[in-house]
Amino acid sequence: MVGRKKQSSQLADRLRLKDSELSWRCPEEYLKFRTTEDIRSPASVKPAGVTIVGQERAVEALALGLDIESQGYNIFVTGPSGTGRTTTVRQMLERYKTAPRELDDKCYVNNFRDPDQPRLLRLKPGDGRRFQRDMDQLIEYLAKNVPALFESETYQHSRTEIVDRFKEEGGARVREFEKRVASEGFALVQSAPFARPELAPIVEKQPVHIDSLAGLVEEGKLPAKRAEEIRAKYRALNDELSAIFKVVREQERLAREALRELDENIVRPVLEERLADVAERYPGEKVREYLKEVAESIIGNIDLFRQRPEAKPEQPALDPYAEYRVNVLVDNSGTKGAPVVFETNPNYKNLFGAIERTMDRTGQWHTDFTKIKAGSILRADRGFLVLNALDVLVEPGVWPALKRTLRNRRLEISAYDPFFSLFSTSVLKPEPVAISLKVVMIGDPEIYTLLSAYDEDFKKIFTVRADFDWEMTLNGAAVEQYCQVVKNLCEKEKLARFDRSAVARVIEYGARLAGRQRKLTTRFNVVSEVLKEASYWAKKDGATTVTAKHVDEAIEKRRNRVRLQEEKIQELIDQGTLFIDVTGKAVGQVNGLAVYDSGEYMFGHPTRITAKTGVGASGIINIERESQLSGPIHDKGVYILSGYLRSRFARQQPLVLSASITFEQSYGGVDGDSASSTEVYALLSDLSGLGIRQDLAVTGSVNQQGQIQPVGGVNQKVEGFFYTCRARGLTGRQGVIIPKANVPDLMLRPEVIEAVRKGKFHLYAVETVDQGIELLTGVPAGRPDRKGNYPPDSVNGRVQRRLAELASIYQGFQAEAKQTDESAGRGRPGLRRRTRR
Description:
Elements: H1 2-15, H2 56-67, E1 75-78, H3 85-97, E2 105-109, E3 119-123, H4 127-151, H5 153-183, E4 186-189, E5 198-203, E6 206-207, H6 213-219, H7 224-281, H8 285-300, H9 303-306, E7 326-330, E8 340-342, H10 348-352, E9 354-355, E10 358-359, E11 365-366, E12 372-373, H11 376-379, E13 384-388, H12 389-394, H13 398-408, E14 410-411, E15 433-434, E16 438-442, H14 445-454, H15 458-461, E17 464-467, E18 471-473, H16 476-493, E19 497-498, H17 500-514, E20 519-521, H18 524-540, E21 545-546, H19 548-562, H20 564-575, E22 585-587, E23 589-597, E24 602-614, E25 619-622, H21 623-626, H22 632-649, E26 658-663, H23 676-688, E27 691-693, E28 696-698, E29 701-702, E30 708-709, H24 714-728, E31 735-739, H25 750-757, E32 762-766, H26 769-777, H27 795-827, H28 829-836
Parallel strand pairs: 1-16, 1-17, 8-13, 13-16, 19-21, 23-28, 25-26, 28-31, 31-32
Antiparallel strand pairs: 2-3, 2-7, 4-5, 5-6, 9-12, 10-11, 14-15, 18-20, 22-27, 23-24, 24-26, 29-30
């Protein structure tokens, strides 16, 4: 017995970790400055360069994607939030703002031949607004001066001459016809204004309608022969009247044409002179063609400019000259280099543009080419557009339209509205715009994986992936870069200077966030928050320099703000509501360690894991799985546990047992395999009958060979059990068993390290189940001999013996049950025969 305790003590001493192994401390030789004011920017960094700490791979991928102009080389930036994705993209794009680009202004004008398809004009930067202003001035000039031309004496005289000439020609014919009509006993009667006069015979010195002759004959007022003569003359004269008025109408037509020609001749010189000035300032076939159509339209709509516009206090609902306006969608007059657009609200209209509508005073909706509005894609043409992937995917209709636009390199602006697509009243189809831009989309790795798997076009459009790492290798160069980051943030945020000890604490906190001693986090948003709060506490303390004390205070205050749930669970443990023992021994009962992650804070706490075994052939029953509270990884861990038992104890005998394993007082979901070694210890304890130390908690994953594998959240798990033990009172024997592979991940809090240094708390690093079970029971695990038998007094020997007993009991029970069935069958032959059938 004494030898066994000595052997167990030697094992504990060998596996016990020193306090120096529980955390990484920043060496003083890395920090060659007194305060951050003494830190100088490295000479190797060029002013125009981009230096993002720990993201060399991502920066290289971004540079590749931004430099290659080929189609499809758009960039998808992935990585956790806070790793500097957006900042890096912004800094990288700063280099391209000054690069020379062939930009243009984009304008839509009326298509006079097909108004439903507005025409696109692409002009030099700045010419768009000038062209718009020149066309507005042209319309204003015409509206002001054309009426004056029509009011001039020259025009009025020419118009009068034309009217009089044609009037005289037509009037002479009519007057001659009137004389003849009178001589024939007829009169010309005007029945309605502007209507052709009608012939009316004179009867008893009064003109009568030709249809009334029959009535006069019946009344005896007109002889029938005379009436017939009148009708004959009427027909002849009426034919002549029709011929005369046909000539008169032709004369009127010629008069109108002459007047229209007069109007054109008086307006055309002025119009062509002004349009020639405009055309000279804006060379290009499309502009000349458009101005030619403008001239034809104005000449054909001279009446629109004939009247002087009335001065009204309110603007009319509809612009009468709208068809001659210029709609400037993109004005690049002030853009130097490549345009860079960060679209933070990528809904359909903001991204692709829109065709707006207006309502007139009658309640009718109207739209035209002047209501076409540009979106971010058009503004970013010949440049770069930056989008958030999740925002793009959740907006209705945006992702398919974005793919189509980038694939075809052509933007079609429409009146489509994802929410009111069934009620769209616009039939406008503006001329498509050929575009050439680079899209940078920022999103999580999960989004990239989903799009790659389920969208066959995705990889063709976003060829380059820039993946941002959440950690960087910790070495002297990395520490130097971290110091530079601290200095830059202090200057940018106007924080108090940090001394050497404060910077060391910040770097150590970066290692803590990374969760490994040889790594530093690149989530500088969290680091930045710590710097700001440390500076705040230093100022509250009246200090001008931030020290390690202020950084520790900032970290502790941040932790206290979000650890309410942790404190509530600890309260339940202290009150005895949650059953946790930190002293003594118990069979089949082990303190496991669970981790809670609320997003902004992760903490660990102990949880009781128990196992019970008995006779049966059900194998290992995972109670969490049976109650649908177990995740797939946890289920896998239990199956591996079964494999471990088979590899150890089922080579010479059958593994026949019924066992149940559960997380006691667990009312939520359980996942992960970090408790699989704990479950093995619980099973071995119950099978062997040996008690497990309750002053030790366990974490670690196990494989089928019995090796202990590393787990996540090891720091939080150790600290969770430490706080429970400290609340109950540290005995000097309490501690945590962790996988040896997790030792490089230890970045424990100072109070834990201090307790270990004073011998009040212990950490043990194990590599195998055998090491762990010996620590927990104080009994050697035992090694098998050549026949696979373990020493009888060892843990494995006791387990092997108990499994043999369970198998024997089960086999005996089966044989007895079979014999009973056979005896029952002999006593009841009918039943036996039925059973055989």
